[in-house]
Automatic annotation (TrEMBL):
Domain HTH tetR-type, first and last residues per copy: 75-135
SUPFAM superfamilies attached to this UniProt entry: Homeodomain-like, Tetracyclin repressor-like, C-terminal domain, Winged helix' DNA-binding domain
Top-level taxonomy: Bacteria, Bacillati, Actinomycetota, Actinomycetes, Pseudonocardiales
Pfam families xrefs: GntR, TetR_C_1
Swiss-Prot/TrEMBL keywords: DNA-binding, Transcription, Transcription regulation
Name under which the protein is recorded: GntR family transcriptional regulator
InterPro entries named in the record: Bact_HTH_transcr_reg (IPR050679), Homeodomain-like_sf (IPR009057), HTH_TetR (IPR001647), Repressor_TetR_C (IPR004111), Tet_transcr_reg_TetR-rel_C_sf (IPR036271), Tscrpt_reg_HTH_GntR (IPR000524), WH-like_DNA-bd_sf (IPR036388), WH_DNA-bd_sf (IPR036390)
Tagged with keyword Transcription regulation: yes
Domain HTH gntR-type: 1-68
Presence of the UniProt keyword Transmembrane in the record: no
Portion annotated as DNA-binding: 98-117
């Protein structure tokens, strides 16, 4: 919708400081001419910003950028903003997070969060750093490399379970420069360094370790999203797919035998169990490969 695009463009100019509090915003006539729209469309864009508290009408001045609400300033902090955004992402997924939505949840004007962060991308990084900082490690590590790496994996897994969106932030090839994520990295690297490998191998092994945890955790939010979209639990979905799965098994004997046995004995796919199985297999492989 054109009026929404016009409102977004003005909102961006205000957020970047191009239009300061108290400054006049372009008139309805100017907006209509600049964007090639009807006067009514331009007026609708200004009305939307007015409803959000971004602009206000001033006698003899026209429409101006609204200044900060003093009461709002006292109640809103960066930490509160980040924690509210985390709560939204935990409940609804990262895709549901928007600056406007966070402001609405906080009960503040739409532009209020921009006094603490430049935009959604910066907010997401602050959220991730706060989430990774919720759990740490003993000041004095104990146990061998395997025990410490197991603790590191389980700690990360617990954080991904608490905040499923964390695993969706980016590929392993583009690590996030987060202070609290570095704490987990240092713990794992310290344990892996006892294998006596060179720097390149140490980096590769850390990527392999973190990939196992993150790779499993990716499915947490995907399942959450699938449940919200379809309304079907994992068991419901499997029941719904049963005829197609049975037809597929007919042409694949090993799969068919496995499916028949699981049908008889019962089976629940539990990500916690698979995570632990993968951790043991990874650590067993490292111990065998490096004689530790």
């Amino acid at each position: 919708m054109k009026y929404v695009a016009i409102a977004d463009e003005l909102r961006g100019r205000i957020a970047r400081g191009e239009l300061a509090p108290g400054a006049r915003v372009p008139s309805t006539r100017r907006l209509a001419a600049d964007h090639g729209v009807a006067l009514a469309t331009a007026a609708k864009a200004l009305a939307l910003l007015s409803q959000e508290g971004v602009v206000r009408a001033e006698p003899r001045s026209g429409t101006v950028v609204a200044g900060p609400d003093r009461r709002e300033q006292r109640g809103l902090t960066r930490d509160r903003l980040v924690r509210t955004a985390i709560a939204i992402a935990d409940a609804e997924g990262l895709g549901a997070l928007s600056m406007r939505g966070v402001a609405a949840r906080l009960g503040v004007a739409a532009m209020a969060p921009y006094r603490y962060v430049r935009g959604r991308d910066e907010l997401v990084l602050l959220m991730a750093d706060a989430a990774f900082g919720e759990r740490g490690y003993p000041a004095r590590p104990s146990g061998d490399w395997r025990a410490r790496l197991t603790l590191g994996g389980r700690t990360l897994w617990s954080l991904f379970k608490r905040h499923p969106w964390l695993a969706q932030l980016g590929p392993i090839t583009r690590p996030l420069p987060l202070r609290n994520l570095a704490v987990h990295g240092e713990w794992a690297l310290s344990a892996l360094s006892e294998l006596g490998v060179d720097a390149a191998t140490l980096c590769d092994l850390h990527v392999l370790f973190f990939s196992h945890v993150q790779g499993m955790a990716i499915h947490l939010e995907r399942e959450q999203s699938a449940l919200a979209t379809s309304g079907l639990t994992g068991d419901d979905w499997m029941d719904h797919q049963a005829p197609a799965v049975a037809a597929m098994a007919a042409g694949h004997p090993t799969f068919g035998r496995m499916l028949a046995e699981l049908t008889e004995t019962g089976y629940d796919l539990v990500l916690d169990d698979i995570f632990e199985l993968g951790m043991r297999a990874l650590l067993d492989g490292l111990a065998r490969r490096f004689g530790r």
